Amino acid sequence: MITVRPGSHVHRLLQLLSTAGEIPMSALSLLGSERSLSDLIRKLETVQDIRFGKDGPVHTARLIQVSGRKGGRNVRLYRKGLPVLDKLYPGLLGWYLDSFRQHIFSNDQFHIERNHRVAEAIALCMAAGVETRPYALPLLQKERIYPIVPDSPSFFIARHFKKAGNDETSKTAYTRTVGVVFYPGGAYAVYNTRAAVMKWSGRGEAKALGNLHELARYNAGLSEVPAALLFGTDADIALKTILESDKSRKPELRFDRVYNRIHFIPLDQNGVRLLKILTLPDWNENLLAALFEDHQRSYNKGVMEYDAIIDNTRILSHLDGDIARLIRFREALADNPDMPFQILCFPWQTGFLRSYLGRDTKVRELDMGAMEAALRN
Description:
Structural class: alpha/beta
Helix content: 25-40%
Number of helices: 14
């Protein structure tokens, strides 16, 4: 007997699959113990007695199907088990069938890769406590300014906001965007480069950003979406993506020019914790206030970006993983090679920073738990 309770592994797995349609097996580790989830999936690949809640009725069904081998294993819901979705959320079965073409999936690798990008973003957001269920979120619109997004962090996947305003041309306007995260006071466009270097489409992303500005203005009362989240398997992917962008023949279309801030989020538990920080109200101001005395802070004054100056040393905080800002900082260092500087980071960011800025880069590692505690107080 498998009991589906809110917060349990099986509950989170069904919620993820009902939202994403299909996911790579590798992404499930974001939801909890990889071993426990693997064991659970093996059970759900066979017929099981399933009960929703402590005293709910028992349903006998197979819920999961897995295809592929080794690192390419793909997880989907099993068609005959779909009726149990309405026990997870009223009306979910109809929503799922409408969203995923009556449970018909393409075997084309491009479409599978696109679905996996979305699924991993959903999984990471779920793990960070961000609401991801489209069927439990309001429908976005482009008709009038009417803030309807939740007060708590929420992730709207691109599949469902492309139809906002009934403008068919908008369906092609979001290029590589997998969704948008709203949080109290702000929003992020969301991209997932996975384990490959992202080939940035400057014109396409600029057009996508214009559409996101409209969605943010009409539905959240925000004037713009100035920042993006870039998910990836590790920091080296971010470095390679930066270097690829540096090759652009049109600097104004580089991805760090389209978005003023781009926060790299690794697809692991460090990324989950960082996303929790980046979706707190006033997280940036509270973070800098916890790090520096008021007289030390730069408050964006000067000809280059840095956060504080102590004993004539410019200090930049990379705790937020902002690689767009890091690019601008490196360009300023090239013009001021003798200027003393220091980078603040979490231990898992150190290798990336030294790869990008040089092995001798002076970094100061801060404990992530201590910063999380400071932001909660």
